């Protein structure tokens, strides 16, 4: 069964398991009873491949209840369910010997296990409330709600520390805001730190925690991205006079951190990391020099991630040394106690509300599947697990999938693209994907690659490939297991869609006496260009245009420019949302309805386009009498003109 599936090319496997040549290996018998990993680039039809395999399994006498399809979001799950249902309904409507079976499958689709990994975890936990020791009616706490509870737990822990003779010494080490930030980091990563928590004795826990913090900093994607840009600039000989020495020194420090960690020298690693921060200086993030911008990015991320526990941002911070590490062990012990206190408060809050957060769902479901009796029951129910966006899974989720599949070949069908990984979001770890990739190649699994892109045309892909190859590189970096080398895509379309003409990439610049003035000029330049393209027919409808910004702070300037040029727009998110006139007017109406005695809000509502009362009419209504505006509206309105009387 093929939904216009693009052709696949499989990378070479070990000689004994080399796949036979086939026009589309994913739709052939070559993958029957074999695990499959599909490497799918952006726009290459990965969802189509996933749906095709799901339908193929249904053809092979599987029922929807025996298949688990895991997507990254609920929206993606609805899309996949809809596409599967569409094809199942079409088959059920056809005359033939399998008509009754497809009709039954169509009826069973409401119970199909197509959803997110956390939806599956919740199903597993709800099926075993006694073993999991949870309320069967527990609620799932989403991330914003969980963040609120974590913040409350951190605050409670700091209150406790302020009254504890030992823990109070932490306030001499870090200000309350920095302590809170560290505790929140530890709460967010509590499952990753579980092994450290179980270690003994206390000094060993502290050493492991310090090692973990150093490795986390060395592997941080934002720090690595800035370092990679500096390295590329140095290799290209493009370090400007503004920052060549600082940039080169930062790159050397970064290598020293890796070398020290490999040698097990935590003090040297911390010293090099500290020195790196000192070299970042006070370069600005909006500097013209690209090296200066990357140094500024390094400084900002260091201050967020590393400074709370290592220092370096303040001029009077002292670099770490061996004696300092001994004193630091005591501080880490106190910090660990503080984090444990916060974790206890957080867990108590979850228990009071009969809730589990996402980490709790994964932890509880995995603990249940570690029980042979529970695991065998689920393995008997589930015959295949299909996973979309596998690059965004973490190791707990990988283990959960392995439990469900039970080591039986042919039960895993994984689709992902390491280049699209949202690294560390919800614990996502792209190295998990690469580990599974390597395992598949060593065993009898199938690794296939979708290399044909259906979104862009040849010239566009050639330009982006040329750029990304230079930025991402083409070789693996053992020091950066999360970094993914570049791989080109092949365009399905040789030319752009009808009516789309070059240039495909334009650069416009705004100049002004100040950065703010230049930003305003740039916004109006863009608005004029969009208006010209619309008039020329290059833009047929405004919803064909998307504007992407580095930060929400720029939204207001561009919104004003678009409005001035008569271009309709929808802002997906932004800080200035509540300051927009239409939103202020609506808020005034709602507040006036909620509190009719609020003269200010009622006046704002009456002046809004919803009522359109004039300022003169409002002054007349208010007068000199100390009465509410609401009372005046129910009084004598004869002094107002006819139009204002109608509006009032």
Question: How would you sum up this structure, described in words?
Answer:
By secondary structure, the chain is of the alpha/beta class. The chain folds into five domains: 15-126 and 359-450, Rossmann fold; 144-349, no CATH class; 454-496, no CATH class; 515-571; 580-647, no CATH class. Helices cover 54% and strands 6% of the residues. The protein has 28 helices and ten strands. The chain has helices at 46-59, 74-93, 99-108, 117-127, 129-132, 143-162, 170-173, 176-188, 194-198, 202-218, 221-235, 244-263, 266-279, 290-305, 307-310, 322-352, 358-369, 372-381, 395-405, 430-442, 458-472, 515-535, 555-564, 581-594, 599-607, 615-622, 629-633, 642-647, and strands at residues 36-40, 67-71, 113-116, 139-140, 355-356, 384-387, 412-416, 446-450, 452-457, 490-493. It has a six-stranded parallel sheet, with helices on both faces. The chain has a two-stranded parallel sheet with strand order 4-5. The protein has a two-stranded parallel ribbon with strand order 9-10. It is globular, with a radius of gyration of 30 Å. The model is unreliable at 1-23 and 423-427 (pLDDT under 50).
Oligomer: single chain
End-to-end CA span = 66 Å
| β-sheet strand percentage | 5-15%
| Averaged pLDDT | 81
Number of helices, counting only DSSP H or I runs of 4 residues or more = 28
Task: Please give the share of residues in helix.
Answer: 40-55%
Rg calc: 30 Å
Q: What overall form do the CA principal axes indicate? A: globular
Total beta-strand segments: 10
Helices and strands: which structural class? alpha/beta
Strand order of the largest sheet: 3-2-6-7-1-8
Count structural domains.
Answer: 5
Task: Give the biggest sheet.
Answer: 6 strands, parallel
| Low-confidence runs | 1-23, 423-427
């Amino acid at each position: 069964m093929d939904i216009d599936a693009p052709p696949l090319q499989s990378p070479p496997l070990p000689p004994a398991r080399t796949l036979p040549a086939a026009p589309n290996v994913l739709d052939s018998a070559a993958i029957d009873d074999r695990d499959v990993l599909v490497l799918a680039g952006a726009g290459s039809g990965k969802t189509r491949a996933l749906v095709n395999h799901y339908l193929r399994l249904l053809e092979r006498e599987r029922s929807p209840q025996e298949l688990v399809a895991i997507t990254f979001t609920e929206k993606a799950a609805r899309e996949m369910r809809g596409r599967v249902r569409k094809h199942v309904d079409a088959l059920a409507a056809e005359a033939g010997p399998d008509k009754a079976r497809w009709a039954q499958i169509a009826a069973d689709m409401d119970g199909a296990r197509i959803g997110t990994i956390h939806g599956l975890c919740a199903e597993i936990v709800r099926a075993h409330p006694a073993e999991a020791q949870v309320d069967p009616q527990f609620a799932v706490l989403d991330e914003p709600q969980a963040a609120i509870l974590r913040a409350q737990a951190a605050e409670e822990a700091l209150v406790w520390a302020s009254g504890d003779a030992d823990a109070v010494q932490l306030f001499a080490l870090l200000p309350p805001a920095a302590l809170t930030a560290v505790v929140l980091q530890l709460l967010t990563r509590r499952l990753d730190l579980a092994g450290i928590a179980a270690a003994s004795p206390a000094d060993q826990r502290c050493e492991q925690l310090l090692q973990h913090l150093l490795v986390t900093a060395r592997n941080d994607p934002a720090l690595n991205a800035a370092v990679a840009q500096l390295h590329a600039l140095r290799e290209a000989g493009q370090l400007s006079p503004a920052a060549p020495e600082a940039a080169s020194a930062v790159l050397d420090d970064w290598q020293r951190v890796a070398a020290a960690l490999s040698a097990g020298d935590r003090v040297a690693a911390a010293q090099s990391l500290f020195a790196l921060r000192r070299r970042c200086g006070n370069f600005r993030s909006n500097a013209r020099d690209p090296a200066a911008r990357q140094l500024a990015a390094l400084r900002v991320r260091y201050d967020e991630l590393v400074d709370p526990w290592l220092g370096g941002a303040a001029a009077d911070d002292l670099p770490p040394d061996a004696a300092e590490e001994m004193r630091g062990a005591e501080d880490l012990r106190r910090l660990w106690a503080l984090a444990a206190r916060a974790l206890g408060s957080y867990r108590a809050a979850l228990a009071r509300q009969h809730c589990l957060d996402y980490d709790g769902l994964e932890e509880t479901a995995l603990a249940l599947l570690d029980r042979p009796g529970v695991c065998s029951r689920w393995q008997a129910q589930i015959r295949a697990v299909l996973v979309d966006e596998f690059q965004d899974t973490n190791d707990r989720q990988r283990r959960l999938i392995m439990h469900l599949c039970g080591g039986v070949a042919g039960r895993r069908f994984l689709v992902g693209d390491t280049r699209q990984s949202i690294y560390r979001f919800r614990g996502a770890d792209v190295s998990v994907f690469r580990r599974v990739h390597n395992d598949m190649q060593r065993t009898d699994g199938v690794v296939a690659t979708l290399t044909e892109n259906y979104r862009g045309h040849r010239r566009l892909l050639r330009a982006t490939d040329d750029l990304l190859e230079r930025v991402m590189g083409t070789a693996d970096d053992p020091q950066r297991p999360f970094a993914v080398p570049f791989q080109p895509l092949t365009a399905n379309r040789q030319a752009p869609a009808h009516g789309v003409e070059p240039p495909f990439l334009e650069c416009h610049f705004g100049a002004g006496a100040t950065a703010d003035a230049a930003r305003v000029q740039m916004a109006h330049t863009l608005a004029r260009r969009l208006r010209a393209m619309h008039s020329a027919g290059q833009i047929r409808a405004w919803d064909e245009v998307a504007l992407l910004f580095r930060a929400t702070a720029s939204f207001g300037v561009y919104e004003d420019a678009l409005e001035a040029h008569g271009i309709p727009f929808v802002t997906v998110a932004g800080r200035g949302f509540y300051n927009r006139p239409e939103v202020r007017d609506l808020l005034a109406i709602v507040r006036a309805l909620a509190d009719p005695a609020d003269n200010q809000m009622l006046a704002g509502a009456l002046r809004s386009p919803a009522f359109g009362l004039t300022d003169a009419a409002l002054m007349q209504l208010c007068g000199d009498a100390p009465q509410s505006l609401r009372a005046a509206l129910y009084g004598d309105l004869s002094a107002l003109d006819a139009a204002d009387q109608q509006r009032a």
